[in-house]
């Protein structure tokens, strides 16, 4: 499993490292991390499917300051390894990935804070030297070390945890496996519910109801629903632009009228 563990570590490093190298370009999101892991392990379809399911779960998971929620890259990469390499049921892999992501979030936060504090003196000395080349070397070297260390849990999870997990899954009764699969399929709904709880707004309820009607009663697929939403957004935007132009026109006319009234008043005062 050493080669598999190194490949999993590389997949996690590409997702996490590129995200912070290029200005948080969202490559650490599960749907992207799943695609990268699936590409490296030779099954992009499974990687994207697992990534999309975990994206729905971790969509509202955001680490702000010292608040830790979850680390989705480790969870997604391990879930793809479980499903592709160990041929585990996708529902079971997704169900196992959620607690892994929560634990990895704590480990990532510890690594992130400790390495950042250890690297600060080197950054200060490089900045004090005034040499741009030295600053760049320190920046890229610390980037490489920091995010390589952040991917060690993924490496150990595959190297040390793959075989025990495989043996455990083989010994679990089929009914329990079916329960894990069912719970794995329910977890995206829970993730969406958590997101709706944060974003729910009385002004937006009508659009959620419209989407529900399009899918449930009119039978539109996701592409058709998205296309309908784009047309609706463009129509609303055009209407808002028209109203804004009318408001600006009325304000301009009011300013001109006020200016004309002042001119008449000044003229009458002059001839009085």
Question: Would you kindly provide a written description of the structure presented here, covering whatever features stand out?
Answer:
This protein is mostly helical and 272 residues long. It has eleven helices and no strands. It has helices at residues 2-21, 30-40, 44-58, 72-84, 90-129, 132-150, 152-159, 162-171, 174-199, 205-216, 222-271. The chain starts with a helix and ends with a helix.
Topology:
Blueprint: H1 2-21, H2 30-40, H3 44-58, H4 72-84, H5 90-129, H6 132-150, H7 152-159, H8 162-171, H9 174-199, H10 205-216, H11 222-271
Helix pairs in contact: 1-2, 1-4, 1-6, 1-7, 2-3, 2-4, 3-4, 3-5, 3-9, 4-5, 4-7, 5-6, 5-9
Count of beta strands: 0
Q: What percentage of the residues does DSSP assign to strands (E)?
A: under 5%
Residue runs with pLDDT of under 50 for 5 or more positions: none
Give the N-terminus to C-terminus distance in angstroms: 101 Å
How confident is the prediction overall: mean pLDDT? 78
Apparent shape: flat
- Helices and strands, in N-to-C order? HHHHHHHHHHH
- Helical amount among residues, as a percent range? over 70%
In DSSP terms (H or I, runs of 4 or more residues), the helix count works out at 11
- Kindly name the structural category: mainly alpha
Largest sheet geometry: none
**CA gyration radius, whole angstroms:** 27 Å
């Amino acid at each position: 499993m050493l080669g598999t563990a190194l490949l999993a570590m590389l997949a996690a490093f590409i997702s996490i490292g590129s995200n912070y190298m290029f200005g948080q370009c969202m490559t650490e999101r599960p749907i992207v991390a799943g695609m990268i892991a699936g590409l490296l392990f030779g099954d992009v379809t499974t990687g994207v499917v697992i990534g999309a399911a975990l994206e729905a779960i971790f969509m509202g998971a955001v680490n702000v300051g010292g608040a830790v929620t979850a680390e989705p890259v480790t969870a997604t990469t391990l879930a793809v390894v479980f499903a592709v390499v160990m041929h585990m049921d996708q529902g079971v892999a997704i169900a196992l990935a959620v607690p892994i992501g929560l634990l990895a979030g704590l480990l990532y936060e510890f690594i992130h804070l400790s390495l950042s504090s250890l690297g600060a003196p080197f950054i200060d000395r490089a900045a004090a030297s005034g040499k741009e080349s030295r600053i760049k070397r320190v920046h890229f070297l610390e980037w490489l070390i920091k995010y390589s260390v952040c991917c060690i849990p993924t490496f150990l999870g595959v190297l040390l945890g793959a075989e025990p997990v495989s043996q455990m899954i083989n010994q679990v009764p089929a009914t329990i496996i079916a329960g894990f699969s069912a719970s794995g399929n329910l977890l995206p709904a829970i993730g969406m519910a958590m997101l709706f709880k944060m974003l729910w707004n009385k002004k937006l309820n009508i659009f959620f109801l419209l989407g529900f009607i399009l899918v449930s009663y009119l039978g539109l697929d996701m592409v058709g629903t998205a296309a309908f939403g784009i047309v609706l957004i463009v129509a609303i935007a055009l209407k808002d632009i028209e109203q804004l132009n009318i408001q600006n026109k009325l304000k301009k006319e009011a300013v001109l009228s006020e200016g004309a009234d002042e001119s008449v008043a000044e003229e009458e005062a002059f001839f009085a």
